């Protein structure tokens, strides 16, 4: 069945990314916890803590099924009860303030033959925005999209800018990336297999992007001020994930595993009162580019 094929290919993506991140880190290893969901299905949570560069990172796979709660049915505008959902979700928090936070999610959701879709994306949250890194990141995502449809990148880039936006702060979470939802044949002119291939292509883009960004920045010196700024920027990440993130909401409302859902949160974050960086500082310059609509290509 198609949904089993999706789940198996997602498990392979999880395996490949975990191996690659262990090599890139050089010290840390992933601990695996297998879990079952009350109501149907389960997953493989893999967490690295205290690595040489990865302070806390999660690479999670899940495949769950069962009855949709009423709130989720209303949000999805559906009447059916029985759902299946599978995906890989990744968040990496580095210990180095000049190495960015990265997030990736690829997922498939199915109610029946007519009501099913793919979603996902990758976005980057640098504590300090370096233009060359931002251009490299967006160029790689554009390549992954262009392999399938030239209109994918501009559309999904705009969607990411809009989605990863902290409304109460009037700033983007980071420099965006790509974000897409409800992809199916009638809105892509691709077959289900081709959309799955696109989803896998996005997944396979993660490792070369992030290992390159780690290698570019891991040996740079940093100051105590930069470390404090990292903790401050992490607090914005927490605010977005707890207030706006749809994956967090879906996980909580479908009786998901709490530790897996909240693995996206950093090990430490600071909420300084009314923090205002000095005009012209690197911190101030970063705030100036946390805006929608920047063309990084």
UniProtKB/TrEMBL annotation:
Per the UniProt entry, the Enzyme Commission number(s) are 1.3.3.3
InterPro entries under this entry? Coprogen_oxidase_aer, Coprogen_oxidase_aer_sf
- Pathway(s) per entry: Porphyrin-containing compound metabolism; protoporphyrin-IX biosynthesis; protoporphyrinogen-IX from coproporphyrinogen-III (O2 route): step 1/1
Name the Gene3D superfamilies for this protein. Coproporphyrinogen III oxidase, aerobic (3.40.1500.10)
Keywords attached to this Swiss-Prot or TrEMBL record, sorted alphabetically, are: Heme biosynthesis, Oxidoreductase, Porphyrin biosynthesis
* Family, as annotated: Belongs to the aerobic coproporphyrinogen-III oxidase family.
Oligomeric form and interacting partners: Homodimer.
- What's the name of the protein? coproporphyrinogen oxidase
State the organism named in the record.
Pedobacter mendelii
Could you tell me the gene encoding this protein?
Answer: hemF
């Amino acid at each position: 069945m198609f949904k089993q094929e999706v789940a198996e290919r997602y498990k392979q993506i999880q395996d490949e990314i975990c191996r690659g991140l262990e090599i890139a880190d050089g010290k840390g290893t992933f601990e695996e916890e297998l879990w079952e969901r009350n109501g149907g299905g389960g997953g493989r949570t893999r967490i690295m803590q205290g690595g040489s560069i990865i302070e806390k990172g999660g690479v999670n796979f899940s495949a769950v099924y069962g009855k949709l709660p009423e709130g989720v049915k209303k949000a999805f505008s559906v009447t059916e009860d029985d759902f299946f959902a599978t995906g890989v979700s990744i968040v990496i928090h580095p210990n180095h303030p000049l190495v960015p936070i990265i997030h990736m999610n690829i997922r498939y959701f199915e109610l029946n033959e007519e009501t099913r879709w793919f979603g996902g994306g990758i976005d980057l949250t640098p504590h300090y925005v370096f233009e060359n890194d931002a251009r490299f990141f967006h160029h790689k995502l554009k390549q992954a999209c262009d392999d399938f449809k030239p209109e994918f990148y501009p559309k999904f880039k705009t969607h990411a800018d809009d989605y990863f936006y902290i409304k109460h702060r009037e700033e983007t979470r980071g420099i965006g990336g790509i974000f897409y939802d409800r992809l199916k044949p009638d809105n892509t002119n691709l077959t289900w297999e081709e959309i799955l291939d696109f989803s896998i292509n996005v997944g396979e883009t993660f490792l070369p992007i992030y290992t390159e960004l780690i290698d570019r920045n891991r040996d740079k010196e940093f100051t105590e001020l930069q470390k404090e700024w990292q903790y401050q920027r992490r607090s914005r990440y927490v605010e977005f994930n707890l207030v706006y993130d749809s994956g967090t909401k879906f996980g909580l409302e479908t009786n998901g595993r709490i530790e897996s859902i909240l693995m996206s949160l950093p090990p430490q974050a600071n909420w300084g009162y009314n923090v205002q960086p000095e005009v012209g500082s690197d911190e101030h310059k970063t705030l100036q580019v946390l805006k929608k609509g920047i063309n990084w290509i």
